[in-house]
Design a protein that fits this description.
With about 280 residues, this protein is of the alpha/beta class. The protein has one domain: Dihydropteroate synthase-like (TIM Barrel), CATH 3.20.20.20. About 40% of the residues lie in helices and about 15% in strands. An eight-stranded parallel sheet has the order 8-7-6-5-4-3-10-9. α2 packs parallel to α3 and α8 runs parallel beside α9. The chain is globular, with a radius of gyration of 17 Å. The protein starts with a strand and ends with a helix.
Length: about 280
């Protein structure tokens, strides 16, 4: 299986990829946001040194208790970072708004991380035009609006239906089949048991033959299980990485890259051991 993202190609199977998070906002839920571009670049380079294979940058918080900032402001902050990024490590642009994607991707970025569930083909067409890979995340309804009331009879059945529909939409819009990534959307429009069921049933998504990204880092479901706030969820994050690797997920989006990279290297060695 191959993932093509502009000038980058990843071939699977291989050691899972670590996606390090840079929040160019002041109100990140995990308390690690930074709005100064110089400091953000320093932090991103530190994440690469810790083992990040991809850097995911976002300038608009996904928190539902915050009003969305203007698109021009979001785009400007992302472009300021991209134009100063000199590392060969690829960038993932975290936005769901087509206006922002259209403004930003011509300046760079290898992946569009669309957390909006691809309601139309606009972001897919932008990826097709620029060559960026498209990361499709499952959720329900518009971002920035709470959807905590949503429940499913079987979340894995719903994910299968969702990705079948969205991959077909992306292909029709011109996105190459090697340029898509699937994200089951942990915590987005899901209950605690839905999230846990995803970890147990992840192998069902391998039928799409696309890389699976798990956004495991410091998630609410970890807090619900452990009863701890977001900054204290790194051990739970590592546990979710273990669960994901046992079921074949290929990419992990995390805040604490060093801990995640060490966990991935160790688990990969164990799972690859002869005998």
């Amino acid at each position: 299986m191959i993932l093509t993202a502009r000038d980058h190609t990843f071939t699977f199977p291989r050691r899972p990829l670590i996606m390090g998070i840079i929040n160019l906002v002041a109100d990140s839920f995990s308390g690690d946001g930074v709005t100064d571009i110089v400091l953000a670049l320093e932090k991103a380079h530190a994440l690469v040194a810790d083992g990040a294979d991809i850097i995911d940058i976002g300038a608009e918080s996904a928190r539902t208790n915050r009003v969305a900032i203007p698109e021009a402001e979001e785009a400007e902050q992302l472009i300021r970072f991209i134009e100063r990024w000199e590392s060969p490590v690829p960038l993932s642009i975290n936005t769901w708004r087509p206006g922002v994607a259209r403004a930003v991707l011509p300046h760079g970025g290898q992946i569009l991380n669309d957390i909006g569930a691809l309601p139309t083909d606009e972001n897919a067409r932008i990826c097709a035009d620029t060559g960026a890979a498209l990361l499709i995340m499952h959720t329900v309804g518009e971002p920035k609006i709470p959807h905590t009331h949503i429940a499913y009879d079987d979340i894995m059945v719903r994910l299968d239906e969702f990705f079948s529909e969205k991959l077909a939409l992306a292909e029709k819009a011109g996105v190459h089949s090697d340029a898509t990534i699937l994200d089951p959307g942990i915590d987005f429009a899901k209950q605690r048991d839905d999230n846990l069921r995803i970890y147990c049933g992840l192998e069902a998504l391998h039928r799409f033959e696309r890389p699976i990204l798990l956004p495991v880092s410091r998630k609410t479901v970890i807090g619900e299980v452990l009863g701890v706030p977001a900054p204290e969820r790194d051990a739970g994050t590592v546990a979710c990485i273990v669960a994901g690797m046992r079921r074949g997920a290929q990419i992990y989006r995390v805040h604490n890259v060093r801990a995640a990279a060490q966990a991935v290297a160790t688990i990969h060695a164990v799972l690859s051991a002869p005998g």
